[in-house]
Design goal:
By secondary structure, this protein is α+β, with helices and mostly antiparallel strands. The chain has helices spanning 17-36, 58-71, 201-212, 230-240, 261-274, 305-315, 319-323, and strands spanning 46-49, 55-57, 76-81, 88-89, 96-104, 115-123, 141-147, 151-156, 161-167, 172-178, 188-190, 223-225, 243-246, 278-280, 300-303. The model has no long low-confidence stretch (mean pLDDT 94). The structure holds 1,6-di-O-phosphono-beta-D-fructofuranose (FBP) and magnesium ion (2 copies). Homotetramer.
């Protein structure tokens, strides 16, 4: 089988078909391994830590090596991975630079909850790092694979979001939807609320007002979700709406949040905008910003546009308003 026989290619730009095909081939293999769970050799075993100091699990390393190998010879010149300190050259004459989070949500490997792979593609520059430390608006493609009850590829080439589902009957990724848009009006927010005491006042005020529900200034009830897999949260929001926040907070090392710009936030932001939503680093549009190091972190807020703008508006409230208890927060009372 050639790489491109793993996915229906009609909507994929010709030059990128080998790259997307290779991602789907490895995604397919990983989905089988992940589905076997404990029948496999300890996928969730801790091996040590990666360049960024995060714990590295066996599956993080397996996925990284498999993607690097499969992408060699597909037109990828520069390969940047969460699991590697520096950029690796795969194909000196390749046209593309690909950044990858080979396994996202690795705390969920052992508990049978959705995990995934996130990727971002640029036209390569001569400089390895220069190919990634640039305006995120210059991405030419972005997407993720999610390994859940269904294995799905969500991808954009800058003209809307395409959804492909892996058919377990023949292992082929088949087009399930195109021009996907984030539904408006879902009353769901996703944030790791255990960090409440570390957040800034505007983030606390925003969440306080959601929690106050019908009795608060928002005058409606909300639901909260936290899967701890960015791919799973993104998939839910692309499918039924809502908002995701991983803000900066005052824990040491979290001054810029937790998530990484190059291979997590930039590709998710491109997908979200292509689906009609918004993505910011709290207030400022994320696309258009650039990372200054390969593993740099950034706060991330994304989801349906109206909700993301509201988070930004809380940052503009005067001090007495963000400090006030929700009952007294006058400006947001309808
Ligand atoms: O454990 P926390 O602080 O809630 O962080 C959860 C976040 O960390 C991540 O798992 C980080 O990704 P990795 O598993 O690739 O390191 C995200 O998927 C998720 O949104
Ligand atoms: Mg991740
Ligand atoms: Mg990861």
């Amino acid at each position: 089988m050639t790489e491109t026989s793993y996915i229906e290619t009609e909507h994929i730009p010709v030059a990128l078909r080998p790259v997307i095909g290779a991602l789907c081939r490895i995604g397919s293999e990983l989905s089988v391994q992940i589905a076997r769970g404990p029948l496999e050799e300890r996928l969730g075993a801790e091996l040590g830590s990666n360049a960024d100091g995060d714990t590295q699990k066996a599956l993080d390393v397996i996925a990284d090596k498999a993607f690097a190998r499969a992408l060699t010879g597909t037109g990828v010149r520069h390969y940047a991975s969460e699991e590697r300190e520096t950029v690796q050259e795969l194909d000196p004459s390749g046209r593309y630079a690909l950044a990858i989070d080979p396994l996202d949500g690795s705390s969920n490997i052992d508990v049978n909850v959705s995990i995934g792979t996130i990727f971002s593609i640029f036209e390569a520059k001569d400089g390895a790092e220069d190919s990634f430390l640039r305006d995120t608006d210059e991405q030419i493609a972005a997407g993720y694979l999610i390994y859940g009850p269904q294995t799905t590829l969500m991808v954009t080439f800058g003209d809307g979001v395409l959804q492909y589902v892996r058919d377990p009957l023949d292992g082929m990724f088949k087009l399930a939807a195109e021009r996907l848009t984030i539904p408006a009006g879902a009353n769901e927010f996703a944030i790791n609320a255990s960090n409440y005491r570390h957040w800034s006042k505007p983030i606390r005020a925003y969440i306080d007002d959601c929690l106050a529900g019908k009795e608060g200034p928002r005058d409606k009830n909300f639901n909260m979700r936290w899967v701890a897999s960015l791919v799973a949260e993104t998939h839910r929001i692309l499918t039924r709406g809502g908002i995701f926040l991983y803000p900066s907070d005052n824990r040491p090392g979290y001054e810029h949040g937790r998530l990484r710009m190059v291979y997590e936030c930039a590709p998710i932001a491109m997908l979200v905008e292509q689906a009609g939503g918004q993505a910011t680093s709290g207030c400022d549009r994320l696309l258009g910003q650039r990372a200054d190091t390969l593993h740099a972190r950034t706060p991330l807020v994304f989801g349906s546009g109206e909700k993301v703008s509201r988070v930004c508006a809380y940052h503009d409230l005067p001090e007495e308003e963000v400090s006030a208890l929700f009952g007294n927060r006058g400006l947001f009372r309808a």
